[in-house]
Amino acid sequence: MERAPLTMPGPIPRLVGRLRTKRADHVVHGAKTLIAALLTWGIVAPWSTGGRPYMAVATALLMVNASTVYQSVTKAAQNVVARVAGLVLALAAAQLLGPTAGAVAVIAVIAVLAGPRRTAEDRLQIASTAVIALAATTAGPMGSLISPALQTLTGAAVGIAVNALVLPPLYLNESDSAVRDLARSMGTLLHDMGTGLSRRHLTSKAHTWLHQARSLDDRLIRAEEQVRQANESLRWNTRCVAHTRRKETSAFNDDDTFRALRGVSLQVRGIARTLADNAHDNHADHHLGHQFLDQYAETLQLAGAAVQTFAEPTPAASSPDTSPRVRLRGTIDGTLAWHDTMTDMIARGTLTKPGAWHVYGSLMTDAERLLADLDRTDTR
């Protein structure tokens, strides 16, 4: 069966594209930070104590630099609650014990025992805010403690507004790239294993393949984090109103694709492990026969092409005969044909080395599950 060659962008163009994207992101972050700082200063300085709204500006910078709009809102809520709790704790300690060492000790104990639901960062923020506010009571009246709370609220509101309205961050390209890199690595490994089997390199390359299969875990973790961040960046994002690529014109959905590739990774690792164990099995009758290896090599090569094609974007002007979906369907059908052929040969006992039937079954099952994951997701 003839297959259209896969055309993947080279590493240099991908690197240049990433550098340009990072540079543009730095410019956007810098502009948003400057806008948030100046806007907060202009709003808070007229009514802040001494005209120094440092707490408001610090809070605004923290919110505007959150990685997503959703995170800026949740961080703002946590920040405001922690600082208000610290101010209340300081007021209570000052009323009961005054600005003394005993008040500081009480603040530290209460902050530590704030409960397991609060993180260590939240407890530290409560304690530090309370100690600073306690120090402020020695230089001014109790009413002066209201200003920090209002500054925190104002800074948080300005930071969230700027982050949400001025080019709010989206991480769709990073998610797409991570998922495609994962698919490309898996497809390359499957193709390499197929090529190695056809060249009788099982004994010399088996453990290398197993090591490469295990190293896919790092790419899986990175892809999962990127997909999670991309999904989070879509929440409460004002750009999503006009940004239709994700829901309408995207070649694939990262969630479905990643879940399929996570299942595929288990099968790839299982294949590599079975081949490594068989390569150094001391029982000669357990070794795989050449007839099986030749056909299984073709299966792995087709499966590698299918995995790489699975995560390819659909070009805007692609013909029906060359679209990634059609090529994926063709590679899956071709691999299934080889799978049926080998299954029939095993059932009829025409393969050599019958003592390796359990190894044949393991390898065939992994290949079948791999294709089923791709086929199920592609159909959906």
Structure in words:
By secondary structure, this protein is mainly alpha-helical. 74% of the residues lie in helices and 0% in strands. The protein has 13 helices and no strands. It has helices spanning 11-44, 54-64, 69-97, 101-112, 120-137, 146-165, 172-198, 202-233, 245-249, 254-279, 290-310, 324-348, 357-379.
Keywords:
single chain, 380 residues, mainly alpha, 13 helices, 0% strand, disordered N terminus
Q: Label the overall shape.
A: elongated
Radius of gyration: 30 Å
Largest sheet: none
Q: Total number of helical segments?
A: 13
SSE layout and pairing:
Blueprint: H1 11-44, H2 54-64, H3 69-97, H4 101-112, H5 120-137, H6 146-165, H7 172-198, H8 202-233, H9 245-249, H10 254-279, H11 290-310, H12 324-348, H13 357-379
Helix pairs in contact: 1-2, 1-6, 2-3, 2-6, 3-4, 3-5, 3-6, 4-5, 7-8, 7-10, 7-11, 8-10, 10-13, 11-12, 11-13, 12-13
Task: Summarize it.
The chain has 380 residues and is mainly α.
